[in-house]
Design a protein that fits this description.
Blueprint: H1 9-18, E1 29-34, E2 37-38, E3 43-49, E4 59-62, E5 72-75, E6 79-83, E7 91-97, E8 100-101, E9 105-109, E10 127-131, E11 135-136, E12 141-147, E13 157-162, E14 178-181, E15 189-192, E16 196-200, E17 208-214, E18 217-218, E19 222-226, E20 231-265, E21 273-281, E22 287-290, E23 293-299, E24 306-324, H2 336-341, H3 353-363, H4 369-383, H5 395-401, H6 406-419, E25 424-432, E26 438-448, E27 452-456, H7 458-461, H8 475-478, E28 487-492, E29 505-507, E30 520-533, E31 537-543
Parallel strand pairs: 2-9, 11-19
Antiparallel strand pairs: 1-3, 3-6, 4-7, 5-6, 7-8, 7-9, 10-12, 12-16, 13-14, 13-17, 15-16, 17-18, 17-19, 20-23, 20-24, 20-30, 20-31, 21-24, 22-23, 25-26, 25-28, 26-27, 29-30
Helix pairs in contact: 3-6, 4-6, 5-6
């Protein structure tokens, strides 16, 4: 979907006033469906705009399946009435008109929804008794009361419904319900006790069931409605990757008792990157999941020896597209996400006076965070001197020299956005080109209350792509708010790790495929060694 450009202020004002993202195309938009929860064969009413006065070749899809022609009762430009087909599953409702598709709303099949459990405890696992609210926005607080949650979270979690646009080749009977977990790194968990859990609704959640999962089992799911979103977020075109990487250690000088800790990054979990699966590894870890990394501990290494650790993962990545109704955005001052992701740091110097001055100049009197972020993005594309060639430095060097590579552009966007009061994080990983070769890459996300994270890639928007990567013709507009599936994410924001020993000697790796403050820590009699962290190798890519 195309978006307006700040190079044309007259168009910008008109589009913003109308709350749309394109003045050239009339894309169908669903504003409501009734009922949201119903039964097969029931009459479904869809209200919105730009459906077309007559159906002709247009159609509605529910869970990716178009109903038969006899199912349509009425078709107008702003209203459609249709009988729900007997597909037997809940799913996303879309209107397809004039070769364009609308946003999606979820229709839930009442027959497949679980009913709350009453009466005696059926098992020793977790049980949800009630929710503080039956509906809420992305990022809103929710209290879950019940029993058997456990006194600490550890390997437990709360899961909300998640959905993607199905592939045309995917039969309905093969579709299964999927979930998205509450993210601890985003302040998602506020309290966890045996009888009460307080969480925030995670990015990517849709109306549907939520459940609590613990090592003792999963609760019966309870329905929760996602409401008040100022736009839509669509996940489609799943691509599955298998990848391998690792580290080789060559010990030079070691004596007595010694230890080497290694933090190996894992593919990051997000609404668009899911189902990470460890296929193999050459060594068992010391800690399986340590703040998004796998921690290995090598004890009593000997001189002139070599140790290697190899890891192979599989991960699913989706193309992500967003549509925002700008007037519907209501950003809350002092919200938790703002306090978490607008703090200055060495990596994101948003408190620097030069950064603050430029952010104020670029955003002016604008109050809408989405428009602010777009103005910063447009300035980076036009004035930031973004190039694919590797440079040195960070956000300040990019600002002063007006030259930036993908790494510097990502940090500079986040610095300017945070200085303008917009929660923002740098994202790191690899791009996968058409030859299945991986290159380190960096992009960013910013937060909109009630909607979630919005992705952008300033480097690809400016055309600064590595060799063999297929760029879109509309890259400048598309890479603000949308992201392709030709990448694998390893860190979202800076992964802050703690030393294992107070006298340990640490090593960091700048500009790697993961942004983490620690990679290695030597302790005891390990005097000297060398390490080689290999680049990411893609061993398979499967389009589904």
């Amino acid at each position: 979907m195309k978006r307006f450009s700040l190079l044309y202020p007259a168009i910008l004002i008109t589009c913003a006033a109308l709350g749309i993202l394109s003045c050239k195309e009339k894309i169908p938009e669903i504003q409501s469906i009734n009922p949201r929860i119903g039964t097969m064969g029931e009459l479904l009413t869809i209200r919105g705009e730009h459906f077309g006065e007559q159906r002709d070749e247009s159609f509605v899809s529910i869970a990716g399946i178009p109903p038969t022609s006899s199912s349509y009762i009425e078709w107008r430009d702003d209203l459609i009435r249709i009988r729900v087909p007997e597909f037997g599953e809940s799913g996303l409702v879309r209107v397809h008109s004039g070769g364009r598709k609308s946003n999606a709303l979820l229709f839930s099949n009442r027959a497949t929804m679980p009913t709350p459990v009453s009466g005696a405890e059926l098992s020793q696992g977790p049980r949800i008794d009630s929710l503080s609210s039956q509906s809420g926005q992305i990022g809103s607080p929710l209290t879950i009361t019940g029993n058997g949650f456990g006194n600490s979270r550890e390997q437990s979690g709360v899961y909300f419904s998640w959905d993607a646009e199905p592939a045309l080749s995917s039969p309905v009977e093969e579709r299964r319900s999927e979930t998205v977990e509450v993210y601890d790194a985003e302040g998602g968990y506020e309290l966890w006790s045996d009888r009460e859990i307080r969480v925030r609704v995670p990015d990517g959640a849709v109306s549907g069931n939520i459940e609590v999962r613990t090592p003792r089992g999963s609760s019966r799911p309870v329905f929760f409605d996602i409401s008040g979103k100022p736009g839509t977020k669509t996940f489609r075109d799943k691509r599955s990757y298998t990848l391998k990487f690792g580290v080789d250690i060559q010990v030079q000088n070691a004596a007595g008792q010694n230890t080497l800790y290694l933090w190996a990054p894992k593919p990051a979990a997000s609404a668009a990157q899911r189902n990470t699966e460890l296929l193999s590894r050459s060594m068992e870890p010391f800690v399986e999941n340590y703040r998004g990394t796998t921690l290995f501990k090598l004890n009593d290494l000997r001189p002139n020896t070599t140790v290697g650790i190899n890891l192979i993962y599989k991960v699913d990545v989706y193309t992500q597209e967003t549509t925002i109704r700008i007037p519907a955005i209501k950003q809350e001052s002092g919200a938790p996400m703002e306090s978490l992701f607008t703090r200055p740091s060495a990596l994101i110097p948003s408190g620097d006076e030069r950064i603050k001055t430029l952010a104020a100049t670029l955003t002016g009197r604008e109050r809408n965070p989405f428009v602010k972020a777009q103005k910063i993005y447009e300035w980076l594309i036009m004035e930031g001197g973004i190039q694919n060639a590797g440079l040195t430095g960070g956000a300040i060097e990019a600002l002063e020299g007006k030259r930036a590579d993908p790494y510097m552009a990502s940090l500079l966007f986040c610095s300017l956005a945070q200085a303008a009061g917009i929660p923002a994080i740098p994202v790191s990983g690899v791009l996968v080109n058409r030859f299945q070769s991986a290159s380190r890459h960096y992009w960013a996300e910013f937060w909109i209350d009630g909607f979630g994270w919005v992705p952008l890639d300033p480097a690809l928007g400016a055309g600064a792509a590595p060799g063999g990567f297929n760029l879109r013709e509309d890259r400048r507009e598309w890479y603000f708010g949308n992201l392709d599936n030709q990448r694998i994410t390893f860190s979202r924001g800076l992964t802050n790790l703690s030393q294992m020993e107070t006298r340990g000697r640490v090593a960091v790796r700048d500009r790697s495929y993961a942004l983490q403050n620690l990679w290695e820590e030597a302790a005891g009699g390990l005097e000297s060694y060398s390490s080689l962290w290999g680049d990411i190798t893609i061993t398979g890519a499967y389009v589904q």
